[in-house]
């Protein structure tokens, strides 16, 4: 922890810069924000803390004009306002930096900054660049205003976004998980700048689920859980344990079956797996573990900790920088999977099923019907140049019937079905091929309770068949109730592997946010 | 004997319709609209001018009574209106109704070439002439008027001053377009619309307005190319299909210049030169080789297209959203 | 953003799903409207009463047995090129190079007939011409596909440019082989021996072409609907990520599909030269490659749908050409009418994909429409 600001500590008196009262936002039957009250003062950093899906981003989207809340009122400097577009928000001095940057790639920083500004007179990029440099100097950014966006690193792009807001005179800044894409060093630099801006009287809201960052940068912390504002704390009067408890809540008793693994044997052995993203960031760092037959291995971690890369690397969809992934068959035969395409893997006789996170963008073809989607991974069967649609049609009928898929017919494009039914189709297809390994990513995201239980049952059924199931999840209650062992990822590293039956939710939560080098790592890591 | 002066002079004359088309299409494409209706637009520009001029000349008791101002203005205004209507049609279909740009463009080319040849043919039959062409020499003489001192300056005058005012207009428009695109706020925002409409939208730029205005201005400029071709280059003589593939050549030129209007000036002269090179190459009796020379502009364009995609340099790529419709809720 | 005070006058949103019946209704309305406008335009030009306009058009298309044959032949050729483009478009590869691919097919066929006309027996000559045409068309499709797969070169512009390269190649050879010398034309190839000409069956030189294209229609439908290749190219067209997930080699599918697309264009070229025209000019393909883009797109790349859309276009052409002849108008009149029809159908797509919400339309009304659509 760094210096605690003396004059800015704790809730500042006077009128809040922003006051949100009773904000409610529903998406269909899902209540994303349930009567949330929130305020932020000038000259403070407020951390908005919560798990994935707790409604942090939705709340901030309402503030910056992307969503209009169903109920509630927003006050700026004590005056009620209506914000219906990002432009309105700009006019009130509110600026938000999203995780996906809004920058034109082939433009320079200065061109991006002045874009859309309605200033009279000649376009004077030189003057704008000077002003940018001046702002940057004020807050301690190091920038080249004439650098093209496509030449920028992620952190430079983020800087460009921040400068864009400051240039427009924003004094309420919202940053959505700003460190998710940064290296620790870059994050430190960002925090230094944020402190400067705070000292300059700006109100700053930072959305995060990293406790260390909360302690490091914020003056106050507001905690959301399942769409509700559950706590409002002064940062220096709280600690990680308290925040974790508030963030994850008390253990919810879920009635999910967890049969004992029968004769677990290593099926997939991962050793020293390192994966880098296209722009060179390390996504997985020296990851080692074993997934065993007849067992559900849960993967816990904050979103973007490397879960996607891990599954895709095993499925042959992700280039691997180093390390090995070994498949061990029932007969003990070992096959190396690194460097092989999904087709190569299948032709080795490895029955590997994968339920990806992006159901309609990767797992299924949105514009095709259930039958055609059923044969997406199996259409090559046989030497005939024609695809035999009879088995997939039968399979489609079977899946529709057994999983109770609500659809007007198997020749209906899957994009017309609801999320739960889409997922049933996808899972139904993946388990139909009698896999020996089943990889699932966020298999119940966005699904209602009943469908979620259908999916849990299907997973357990596979487990009983002796399949090695890898279950990437975001709800810790579910992971603890469903998984036999839980591998916790933190920033692409294995923070530890714990036994699902004895795991403590808060401890897992802590492991997700910081590396536990000493304890925990031994709990189930033995092969 | 290769007559360099006359070659350059004729290359420049050839280049002007291409330059108009290229500048217009570049402005259009910078907004993200790929207007394959360009050949149709240029046809419409030409025939509109012809129709205006024709009826003006018909209304005169005798050709010597022609009013120089009207002789210029009437075809000019008709040309602008005709090509503007084509621009509006394209925008209405692709921007407002979000129709596929390729299909709309090709339909516009069919339509535009059809309209050109239809009215051209009809006017020809109205004159009762037995040759299949229409001559508006009186108007054309005024529009194609060269600078008076051109002849007194020898080769220099021939290369630089022997053109009608539209030729100089084309060069000036290209320079202005280049300046506006690269140096002004409007140009910056237009480029943002073509590159990344979602970002431009988030920055508060009216995507629809930019697309409409850019495409319509682009079509009007391209239409002027048709006007130049018929009233200056062909001395006011309209014959069906004579305009040929110049519209497609202008489209090729846009790629060749990598979407830079100022580069269009020398490039169009180069294309014009390649287009007529066969007339100057001594091929003896072998006429067929000349046809291969005509292929050069297209081959060169293909090479440019391949090389830029191989080098993958960001500045040389087409506007990123070229050809794609924009619908905010798709974000 | 749906807020009562700031709702814009007209708001556009995507429709969830449209029953086939609604689609058919929208198209029918668009075609009907287009025909009315075409009738009006014609009336304006000719002073003829609208009913007579349509009567003349129908007469132009179906008036005599010969006209019906010409209609069918034109339709067959247009359909053939459209069929060639369909798989490429389904893969979201904008092959605007049909014109050049057909022309190269024509060129290959004509050169075989000219160069081998005396040395090969007729059946062998026809076979060699066919193979040469197919290869020439396929090569012309392969070039842009290779660069698309390898370097992601923009295929729309590339294929467009390839058309004119093909045109100039043909122009070169037309002059090289001109007959008689100085005419600038090749003239009928093998006029006396008829070597390399496709046989005339049932007294119609068009029938064989029509049969061949009918067969290609069925084959293409089967290929796209039932074959593994057809499935793969559809997946690539829908989502490259999904294709990767399913283990499909995208580059290979692009190259393979464009080979097919070019090859079928080559067949169209073969039919044009060996079947009907027996000569080679730079305009022998007559803009088929471009019209076919619209035909294929209107039918949403369904081979049987393309029968309808190519019929519509050819009917308009034949009808308009009859009007031109009857009223001594210019032949280009048909292009104007075709353009009008296309504009209406292109525009009507909007009402299938999107729906409009007018300000003041109550929520109840919206729900009612939603209920109707469901």
Give a brief rundown of this model.
The complex is a heterotrimer of chains A (527), B (331) and C (374). Chain A is built from 17 helices and 20 strands.
Descriptive overview:
The complex is a heterotrimer of chains A (527), B (331) and C (374). Chain A is α/β, with parallel strands linked by helices and 527 residues long. Chain A folds into three domains: 18-248, P-loop containing nucleotide triphosphate hydrolases (Rossmann fold); 252-351 and 434-527, 3-Layer(aba) Sandwich (Rossmann fold); 365-433, no CATH class. Chain A is 31% helix and 24% strand. Chain A has 17 helices and 20 strands. Chain A has helices at 56-63, 86-91, 109-114, 125-139, 154-167, 184-199, 211-217, 240-248, 307-315, 342-347, 359-363, 370-374, 390-402, 419-432, 449-464, 476-482, 505-513, and strands at 18-27, 30-40, 44-49, 71-76, 79-81, 94-97, 172-176, 203-208, 220-225, 228-234, 266-276, 282-292, 295-300, 322-328, 334-336, 352-355, 437-441, 468-472, 485-490, 493-499. Chain A has a six-stranded mixed sheet, sandwiched between helices. A six-stranded mixed sheet of chain A has the order 16-17-18-13-19-20, sandwiched between helices. Chain A has a four-stranded antiparallel sheet with strand order 2-1-4-5, covered by helices on one side. In chain A, helix 8 (240-248) crosses helix 17, helix 13 crosses helix 14 (419-432) and helix 14 (419-432) runs parallel beside helix 15. The longest helix of chain A is centred in the middle third of the chain and has 16 residues, at 184-199. Chain A is globular and about 70 Å long. By secondary structure, chain B is mainly α. Chain B is 72% helix and 1% strand. Chain B has a two-stranded antiparallel sheet. Chain B starts with a helix and ends in a 20-residue tail after the last helix. In chain B, 55% of the residues are buried. With 374 residues, chain C is mostly helical. Chain C starts with 9 loop residues before the first strand and ends with a helix. Chain C has helices at residues 20-46, 50-62, 65-90, 98-116, 122-151, 155-176, 207-226, 228-238, 240-245, 250-277, 288-298, 303-326, 333-353, 363-373, and strands spanning 10-14, 354-358. In chain C, helix 3 packs parallel to helix 7 (207-226), helix 4 (98-116) packs parallel to helix 6 (155-176) and helix 7 crosses helix 8 (228-238).
